[in-house]
Amino acid sequence: MPVPVMTVPGEQSESLSGAAVRAAGLRKTYGGGETAVHALAGVDVAFARGEFTAIMGPSGSGKSTLMHCLAGLDAATAGQVWLGDTELTSLRDDQLTALRRQRIGFVFQAFNLLPVLPARENIVLPMQLAGQRPDPVWFDDVVARLGLRERLGHRPHELSGGQQQRVAIARALLPRPDVVFADEPTGNLDSRSGAEVLGLLRSSVKETGQTVVMVTHDPSAAAYADRVVLLADGRLAGELTDPTAASVLDALRDLGA
Amino acid sequence: MRAVTLASIRAHLPRLIASTLAIVIAVGFVVATLVLNETSRATVLDAVGAPYVGADAVVTSDDGTGLDDELDRIAALDGVAAVDATWESGVQALLPGRTGQQYLLAESVADAPALRWQVVADGELPDAPGEIAVSERTGAAVGDTFPLTSFAPDGTERSSSVTVTGVVDLGGDPTSGIYGRVWGTAEQLRAWGAVDPTELRVAGADGVPAGDVVQQVGAALADRQVLVRTGTEQAEVEAARLTGDTMALTAVLLVFATVAVLVAGLVIANTFAVLLAQRTRELALLRCVGATARQVRRSVLGEAALTGLAASALGVLAGIGLAAGVSAVAEAADSPVPLSGLSVPLVAVVAGLAVGTATTLLAALAPARGATKVAPLAALRPVDPEPLRSRGGVLRLVLGLLLLVPGVLLMGVGVALADVLIALPGGALSFLGVVLLAQRAVPPVVGAVGRLAARLGGVPGRLAAGNATRNPRRTAATATALLIGVTLTTAMVVGAASTRATAQAGLAAQYPTDVIVQGDGTMPASLPGRLAEVDGVVAASSLTAATVTGPDGEETGVSGLDAATAAPVLRSTGDVPIPAAGEVVLPWWADSSWGIPAGGDVTFTAGGRTATLTALYGDVERPTLPVAELAALAPEAAVDTVWLRLADDADHTDVIDQVTDIAGAAMPFAFVTGMANERAAIDSVLDVLLLVVTGLLGVAVVIALIGVGNTLALSVVERRQENGLLRALGLTRTQLRGLLAWESALVAGVAALLGVLLGSFYGLVGVASVLGSYGELVLSMPWLQVGAIVLVATVAGLLASVLPARRAARTPPVAAIAG
Predict the structure, then answer these.
(1) Which candidate, A118, B257, B435, B479, has a CA 20 to 30 Å from the CA of A177?
(2) CB burial of residue B655 (10 Å; 0-12, 13-18, 19+)
C-alpha cells in the first residue's frame, strides 16, 4: 500500500511566500455559543503559482468554505488570506468585487452561466464588468482550445452540460487571473464530459502556467491535480503530491478511520 | 391541508405584502367612496332637512298656488297643534360695508315656536315688520340697519329700512355660501312681494304620530292638487334635489374604484403566479406525499381567500380612515362640498370585504389551476431555470383581435356619427382587446427599447434588457397593470383638455363680453374711465344710446358701438358682429317685426336726420350701429353702457365686486352683469373635475407601480443564485442595483409610453364622439401633462426598484454556489 507523503500543515507557508494564494489561521464559525459550528478551525495553507491543486475531504470537512474564503466570496471569522501580496480580509466589498473580476476566475458545479446572455457574452462578462476589452488573440486562443468556436452565439439552454462548463472555463481563463477556483466542476457532468473538462483545466496549467484550485470529492478528478490538500473537520489533514485515484482514495479512507 | 395553507401564508408573508397592499388600496378606495357619499348625503339631509325637523307634515302644491286658503282648514284638524305657511321672496339690499346692491333670498319665520327651525347664532328671530334675521353670508351683525329694496308682483320697487335682530347659522347647507338669506315675519314677506306660500308646515298635537298627521291633512285636502309628506320625507326630497350631482359624482367615483380593483386584480394574479412558480417543487412534494390535485388547489385558493379577507379588512379600515380625513379637511376648510362628521353605511363595509376577497380569489384562480398541473415528479427534478413559455398565445391573439377590430370600427362609427353611445362600447371592446394583445405586444417592445438601454446602460443595462424579456408573461402582466392605469389617466387628461378647449370656444361665443355695466339713464362721464382702471380690467369699451324712429315708424332704442375699442373687449365676434361703417347689427326680433332680410337696407330717422344702413343680424339687444354714425343721426346720444374685459388670471368675483361697488356709488341703480363669472365657474368646474379624476386614476397607477416593485422583488428572490453569480464574477453592488433600476424603468417606461399613446387615442375619440354633436370641436393635446405622465410613471417605476434592489445587493456572492 503506497504511503502518502504527509507534511505538517503550516510549516511551508514561510518558504512559499511567493505563493499565488495563501491563508493563515483561517477560521469560519457559524452561529455562536453552544450551537456554534466551526466550518474552518484554523487553517494554514498555500498554493504555488502554476500549480493545479485539489482540495478534498469528506462532506462537512469545510472544503467549500475554505474555497469561498480563499476566493473572497465569503468573509472569514478570523485569520488572513493573501492573493499574491494582497490581503483579502481587510478589503471592502467593492474592492473585493473588483479583485474578483480581475484576478480570480470561477468555475462552479451548476448554474454557471447567465441564461439571458449568449456564450460569447458570458465569456467576456467579467472583463466587461471591469470595463476592459479582452485581447482578441487570447480570446481566440482560449475559445479554440476549449472547442467553443461554433458555440459562441448559443444561449446556455442551447448548450450541453459539458459545453456550458467549457464556456465557464473560458470565462474564468480569459482575464488571465492569478488563480482559477473550481468548485466541483464535474459534479453535474457525465464521466466523459467530466474527463474533458478536467483535461482542459490540466492543460491550461501545463501550457499557460495558470494556477488552479479545485474543490472536489471525486478521487479520479483529484488525480488530475499536481497536489491534493486534505481537509477534515475544518482542519488541514495532510496532502499528497502527484496523486493517483488510488492514492487519494487511500488517503481519504485513512481520514475516515 | 389547512396546516399547510396556514404555514405557507406565514412563510410567504413578506412576498404577499405587495398583493395585500394592492387590495388594501383598492378596497380602501371603494369604501371611502361609499362612506363619503353617505356622509355627504347625511350632511345635506341634516342641513336641508332642518326646516322639516319640527314639522310632522309638509304640504306642497303642484302648481305652487292656493296653499294660503287651506291654513284654517288644517289648523282646525284634531291632530294638528300648529300650521305655518312659508313665504319666499327676493330682495335687494345695500349691505353694511358694500356700495352696490346685493340679491338676498327672503323667507318667513313661523309664529309657532315648534315650527321655528332656524338656529340663531346671535340675537333673536324677528317679531315685527322692519325686523329681520340674516344668514352669516350677508356679513351683517345684530343691530345693523340698512336699506332694502323689494319688488311688488307688478315690478314696482319699494325701499325701506330694516334692522337686524338675529344671525342664523345654516350649518352645512350647501347653498348657504352662494347667496345671503334674510328672514322676516310672514306679514313682512307679503309686503316684500310674496304672493303664495311655497309650502305649509304642520306640527302635530302631542302624542299624534307624524303618519296620522299626514293622513288627517291629506284627507282634509283630498280635493286639492297638493302633496302631503312627513317632515322626514320632505327633507329627503329636498336633499335628493340638491345631491343629484353628488350621486353622479359617486357613480363616476365607483367607475374609478372599479378600475383600481381591476388593476389590483392583475397585480394579485401576477403575485400568485410567481409565488406558485417558485413553489413548484414544494407543491410537487405535496403531491408526492399523497395530496390530491384538488387538495393542492384548495390549499392555494384558501391562501388567496385568507389573504384577500385580511387585506380587505385592512382596506375597509383604511377607507373609513381616509373618508374621515377628507371629511375633517372639508369641514375645516369650509369647502362647498357638504361633509360633516362621518356616516359609515353597512353596505360600504360589506361591499369592501366582498370586492377585495372576490378579486383576490378570482385573480388566484388561474395560478391555482396551474398549480394543480404540477406533476409529483417535478419534486425530484432539479429546479428548471428555463423561462416559462406562454401558452394559449394563439387563443389570446385571436380573441384579442376579435375584440379589437370591431371595437375600433365601432369607435370610428361613433366619431363619424358623433354618438358616444356607439363609441363607448367600441372603446370598451377594443380596450379589452388591447389588454389581451398587450401580453403579446409588450415583450417585443420592451425588447426593442431594451436594446437601446443596453447601448446606454453598459453591462447592467444589457443584462436588464435580457432579464426584462426572459419571462414575457410576467413582464406583460406587470406592464399591463400599469398600462391600464396610464391609458385611463391619459385618456382623461386629453379628453378634459379638449373638452375644456371646446367649452371655452363655445363660452367665448356665447358670452363675448366679460362684464356689462348698464346705467340707469346717462352715465357720469368719469365712470367708464374709472371702471377701466380697476385692477384686473384689461380693456373697456363705452356704448352710447339714443332713441330713434325705426323703419316701422315706432320709436326704438339703438346703441352706438366703437369698433376700435370694442374689438379687444369681445372674446368672440361669432355671435356679436362688430358693425362696419354703413352697417347696423339688428337683433333677431327685427327680422320678423321689420321684415328686413340680412343684407337689406334699414333706415332710421331722428330729428329730421336719416341714416340708411345695411342690415346684419346678431345676438344684440338693440340695433347697434357704429358710434360715429349714431352721433351723426342723434347728436344727443350719450354713454349708457360699458363693456369690460377681465384679465384671464384675475379673481373675477373680486373684480366684479369692485366694479359693482364703483358703478353703484356713481349710479345707485347701475346694473352689472358678469358673464366672466359664469365662464370662470364652468372653467373651474372642469379644472376641479380634471384634477379629481386624475387623482383618482392615480390610485390605479400607484397600485400598478406596487405591482412593478412586487414583480422585481419576486425576481430578486427567484434570481438569488444568478445575482450571486454576478456578484462572484465581479458585479459591484451599485451595478446590481443599477441592473434592477434599468429593468424596472424599462418595464414602467414602456408601459407608460404605450399607455400614453393609447390613452391619447381614446381621449380624442371620446371627445370627438361626445362633443361632436355640439358643433365646433376643438381638439387639444396637453403635451406637458402627457409628458409628465410618462416621466412620473417611469421615475415611480425606478423608485419601485429601490427596495428590491437593496435586497438584491445584499445577496452574498456565495449564493451562486450555495443556492
Answers:
(1) A118
(2) buried
Question: What integer pLDDT is reported at residue B387 of this predicted model?
Answer: 42
Matching residue, cell 315690478: B155
**Owning domain of residue A185:** 49-72+92-256
Q: Domain for residue A59, yes or no? A: yes
Answer whether B119's CB lies under 8 Å from B169's CB.
yes
Which chain B residues have a beta carbon less than 8 Å from that of A108? 725, 816-817
Mutate to test the interface with B, among A28, A69, A114, A164 (most CBs of B within 10 A): A114
Weakly modelled stretches of chain B, pLDDT under 50: 382-390, 819
pLDDT value at A227 more than 90: yes
- What integer pLDDT is reported at residue A5 of this predicted model? 43
Asked whether the beta carbons of residue B732 and residue A106 sit closer than 8 angstroms, the reply is no
* Cell numbers for B553: 315708424
A113 domain-assigned:
yes
B733 and A CB contact within 8 Å: yes
- CB B724 within 8 Å of CB B281: no
Q: Is residue A64 part of a domain?
A: yes
Residues of chain B with C-beta less than 8 angstroms from the C-beta of A97: 727, 730-733
What confidence tens digit (pLDDT) does each residue in B3-36 have? Answer: 777 777 776 776 677 678 878 877 887 788 778 7
Per residue in B722-752, pLDDT (tens digit) is: 788 888 888 888 888 888 888 888 888 888 8
Chain A residues near residue B809 by CB distance under 8 angstroms: none
The CATH number of the domain holding residue A233 is: 3.40.50.300
Instruction: Please tell me whether the interface predicted TM-score (ipTM) of this complex is above 0.90.
Output: no
How far does A97 lie from chain B, in Å, by closest CA?
5
The domain total for chain A is 1
C-alpha distances out from residue B177 to A27, B52, B106, B138, B675, Å: 79, 21, 15, 10, 20
Q: Residue B564 has what pLDDT?
A: 87
Q: How far is CA B481 from CA A227, B476, B565, in A?
A: 59, 9, 56
Q: Is residue A86 part of a domain?
A: no
